[in-house]
Amino acid sequence: MATITWDSKLAAVAGPKSSKIEKAFGFRTVGDLLRHYPRRYVEKGKLSDPSGFTLDEHVTIIARVISSKQIPYQDRRRGGMAYRLEVVLETTGDELVLTFFDKKKHVADWRAKSIVAGATGLFSGKLGRFRDRWQLTNPQNKVYSSETMESGVDQAYAAWESLPNLLTIYPATSTVQTWQLQEAIELALDLVDAVPDPIPPAVRLQHGLISARQAIEWIHKPDSWEAKAAAEKRLRFEEAFVTQTVLARRRAAVTALDAEPRTGTTGGLLDRFDERLPFALTGGQVEVGEQILADLTAGHPMHRLLQGEVGSGKTVVALRAMLRVVDSGGQAALLAPTEVLAQQHHRSITAMLGDLAAGGMLGGAEGGTQVALLTGSLGAAARKAALLDTASGAAGIVVGTHALLEEKVQFADLGLVVVDEQHRFGVEQRAALSAKAGEVPPHVLVMTATPIPRTVAMTVFGDLETSTLSELPAGRAPIQTSVVPMLERPDWLDRAWTRVREEAAKGHQTYIVCPRIGGAPNSRLDNEEPDDPDESDAPGRGSSGVDLAGVEEIAPALAAGALHGLRVEALHGRMPPERKDEVMRSFAEGEVDVLVATTVIEVGVDVANATVMVVLDADRFGVSQLHQLRGRVGRGGLPGLCLLVTRSDPESAARARLTAVAATSDGFELSRVDLEQRREGDVLGAAQSGRRSGLKLLSVIKHEDVIAEAREAATAFVAKDPDLASVPDLAAAVRRIDESEQGDYLEKA
Ligand code: ADP
Ligand code: MG
Fold first, then answer.
1. Ligand 1, CB within 6 Å, residue ranges
2. Which one of 56, 260, 285, 354 counts the least CB within 10 Å of its CB?
3. If you take atom 4 of ligand 1, which residue's CA is the nearest one?
């Protein structure tokens, strides 16, 4: 018999069952099967406690049979005799009954003999309720008992005695039962010759971890809770360590690349910009700025994530980096997630630079540069001009949306890529833009205002160095946030409109945010702008079945009603770009009192004079989205007010989310709330979650410490052995992840 290895085909241990198992779980090898860890462990002596049961739940329970009775009856529907077996199980609470129906006498008799009083078994099925008792009808079962009535009880006990103390229950499906998996896994454990061990021995020792073989055995067949815990600890660390090795190698690879050092010039654009800055930089801005300038001169590509609270002034930091690159003869690209934001960046950068941005033009400063705007909806002439300025290098700074990624866009010398609001861009887009720099990779600065918890930063963005701007510029007024609960306090909405009028009387402005564009009832979401894939994904109808607020209905209704006399404008993604630009411009210039908009204004929009934000159907938005939205007010030293209007149930999770947003303005705290409500896969993205990466025991939500330790260990190990030559199992595991991500990338391309 050939030896069975980790990579042997599943059939070697699962026999004819293997195709069913492969279909249900996608396992192909013995290794895949052994990486299918139990979902639950049940102590043998412990009886099932039905108090936690819920109707229609699929349960697998272990229990002893108290009584078993066969009842023959007339099957009226199909004619002839049929047999019902009623089995009562021993539990600690409510009674639990199994009912089996059989048509054939010999099957019914065989069943009655195997499920006898005193036998113990595993039973699995959907919970029903019948005459005040829990019931499983025709459950899947495995009984530790013999075929013959006489010796059945004794043998059942004997079989039961020989079972391990901790019984394992596997994630199963309707076609593959937990004990079928158990049998195959048990055989695999006996036969497999070696278990790959990607953790270097020294690291194992240092972290007190058991061997891979021991861990795989104990995760499937622990003889105590301690053994199970030791196995989990080891396997969890392994998952973190392999992932962190992948990331450490990517960081090392970037460090090994050469990049053009961008050293700038004394008296260049950066120096002149700093001189005319109307405010003092915050301590954080200075510190991060120095870090970035050092990165830019280092001779290998910068890959830095800049995270900072909404309004912490990331744009200035980025602009200073861009100017340094322009001073060094290169160009910088700023990639924004939406058209509105790209336009605004273009406007504000041009304004901040003043005559420095009018290079080569009449009235422009000597040595100045140009700022080009490239979006998907430019007219042909404007687009051609922007493309030309980009290709010739006349534009030192190019601001744009996804349109910047198109093939036709060419740079003379792209030295820096800045990605604003990273959560909307994938790694691939970053890579596509970097590729435009040609042979020499550009420096990359990624900015996000959605604070990223440390664990996520260490995994999802693990190939980037991280900087954080935690302080807000001086003079920022706090934003007060309140929930306006329409079910309990419908009158509060009128008070909200009164507040809007009062602010308008003081010359201040208001945003009103709706989850929908409007138009035909409940049909049109604001997601039709090509540059704005995420602009809104709220379904048209609230869970309560009421129509959600739409910009196209709310704006005219308010203008004619509660806000009569105020200047109200609408803004959403389906308006023509020129019109959007015009509306934003007039709002920024104070010609509009109230802007009724979709989430087009979610990120980055910066109008200092806006003091109030009213979010309608606020429960339709996520935690970080609401935090982003309210960051649009209170930016100009005037106190901000944010009202979250909701028709949600006071007891609902949606309401709890709103209360959390109202309770704190700390973005990091909120990102934790957000994280807790999301599932692992949503956080990590497809490539890093689920089957492919093999993250099974490790949770970025729960295991911050493990990730941090593994990161440190992996970084140190990669520094010593960059090719992982001393640990072939690690090299293989890393290669698998790299290849599967490559695969994901190719699939999408
Ligand atoms: P965000 O980090 O959310 O992108 P911005 O870069 O848009 O924030 O900055 C928000 C506002 O704060 C802008 O109007 C900007 O000009 C202003 N700002 C930035 N830095 C400072 C500072 N050090 N002092 C005062 N205002 C600042
Ligand atoms: Mg910003």
1. 279, 281-282, 285, 308, 310-316, 449, 473, 604, 606, 635
2. 56
3. 314
CA distance 691 to 27: 10
Per CATH, the homologous superfamily of domain 479-664 is P-loop containing nucleotide triphosphate hydrolases (3.40.50.300)
Which ligand sits closest to the CA of 419? 2
Asked whether the predicted pLDDT for residue 103 surpasses 80, the reply is yes
Q: For atom 9 of ligand 1, which residue has the closest CA?
A: 313
Ligand 1 binding pocket mutation candidate from 276, 314, 316, 447 (most atoms within 8 A of CB): 316
Q: Domain 40-169 belongs to what architecture?
A: Beta Barrel (2.40)
Position 528 confidence tier, pLDDT thresholds 50, 70, 90: very low
Q: Which fold has domain 269-297+312-448?
A: Rossmann fold (3.40.50)
* Common-topology check for domains 40-169 and 479-664: no
Q: How far is the CA of 83 from the centre of ligand 1 (A)?
A: 78
Cα 632 to ligand 1 centroid, rounded to whole Å = 12
State the pLDDT at residue 647: 94
Model confidence over 563-605: pLDDT tens digits?
Answer: 999 999 999 988 888 888 899 889 999 999 999 999 887 666 7
Ligand 1 atom nearest the C-alpha of 352 is 16
Write down the pTM of the prediction.
0.66
CA of 357 to the centre of ligand 1 (A): 19
Question: pLDDT tens for residues 263-312?
Answer: 988 899 999 999 999 899 999 999 999 999 999 998 899 989 898 877 78
